[in-house]
Amino acid sequence: MSEQMHSRLQQLVVIDKKKQKDKLLDLLTAHGAQGLNVMYGKGSAGGSVWAQAFGLGEEEHKVMITCLIATENAAEVLRLLCKEHEYGKPNTGICFCIPVEGLLF
Q1: What does the domain layout of the chain look like in residue ranges?
Q2: pLDDT tens-digit series, residues 32-47
Q3: What predicted TM-score, i.e. pTM, was given to this entire model?
Q4: Of the candidates 10, 7, 23, which has an alpha carbon nearest to the alpha carbon of residue 68?
Q5: What are φ and ψ of residue 29, in 5° steps?
Q6: pLDDT reported for residue 92
Q7: Which of 5, 19, 38, 89 is the most buried (most CB within 10 A)?
C-alpha cells in the first residue's frame, strides 16, 4: 500500500476501570480526539478460560471510550496509555486503533 493510501484517521478504543474516565478523557482531548463516545459496562472476562489465558482478573465497573484521532497522534496516545496507565501490565486497561477509511459525512 502506498503512503497516499494510509488512513489519516484512527478509531481509538480504550477500555479501563470506570474511575479512570476523567483522566482518559483529558488525555484524549489534549491530543485532539474528536467524536468521543463513553459507554459503561461490566467486564465479562472474569473467571473464563480466556481471562486465565491472558492473566486477567475479575472485571467490574468498566468504561469504554471510542473516538476519532489523527493517525499522527494515535501512536503518542497509545505510548502514554502504556506509560502513565501501565497498560502493559495485567488487570489494567486495553486500547487499540482501527484505521478509518472511506469516511463520508
Answers
A1: 3-100
A2: 999 999 999 876 655 5
A3: 0.77
A4: 10
A5: -65, -35
A6: 85
A7: 38
